């Protein structure tokens, strides 16, 4: 059996059932506490690596597309993911998936800015005009959210570099520790 420098799974498995439940309790309630999109974004940025955030985003979109009855091949092409990844998410949905279904049905709809209001007097097109104006108001709010989320995404690149540096430092530490243990006479 080979030596690994980082045995995270085994460390977690050494915890008692009660300790594992305590960890999960905190995680679930931490997500419950954040209410606004920017609070959630900041929480995720602090909790997860950039790669973990990207992977979770892609998995959620795969689930959303699967629930919208998109084909596996269309999803693979659209998101540039492997068939294994799409299949994995599909299996999760088919073997329960209530959590994903529940969240996806509650995701807000992203509206596009209306091209133009209907021509002619507005009184003759009031329903269409109201829909267009309402959508425009949502787009303005959406644009503000996109700007805030854009800064979140930009910060992920810095986080990605930091995560890589920390991983390299940890790897070097464990390599040095392993070398020192090998040289040490028993």
TrEMBL record:
It comes from the Bacteria. This is TrpR like protein, YerC/YecD. One of its GO terms (molecular function) is DNA-binding transcription factor activity. Gene3D superfamilies: TrpR-like. NCBIfam families: yecD_yerC (TIGR02531). Pfam families: Trp_repressor (PF01371).
């Amino acid at each position: 059996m080979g030596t690994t420098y980082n045995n995270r799974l085994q460390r977690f498995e050494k915890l008692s059932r009660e300790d594992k439940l305590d960890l999960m309790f905190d995680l679930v309630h931490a997500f419950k506490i954040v209410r606004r999109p920017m609070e959630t974004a900041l929480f995720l940025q602090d909790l997860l690596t950039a790669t973990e955030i990207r992977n979770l985003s892609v998995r959620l979109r795969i689930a959303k597309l699967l629930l919208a009855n998109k084909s596996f091949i269309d999803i693979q092409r659209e998101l540039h993911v492997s068939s294994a990844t799409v299949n994995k998410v599909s299996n999760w949905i088919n073997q329960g998936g209530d959590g994903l279904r529940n969240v996806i049905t509650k995701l807000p709809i992203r509206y596009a800015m209306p091209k133009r209001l209907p021509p002619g007097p507005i009184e003759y097109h009031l329903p269409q005009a109201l829909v267009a104006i309402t959508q425009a108001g949502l787009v303005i709010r959406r644009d503000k959210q996109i700007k805030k989320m854009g800064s979140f995404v930009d910060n992920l690149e810095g986080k990605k570099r930091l995560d890589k540096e920390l991983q390299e430092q940890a790897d070097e530490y464990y390599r040095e520790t392993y070398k020192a243990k090998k040289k040490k006479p028993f």
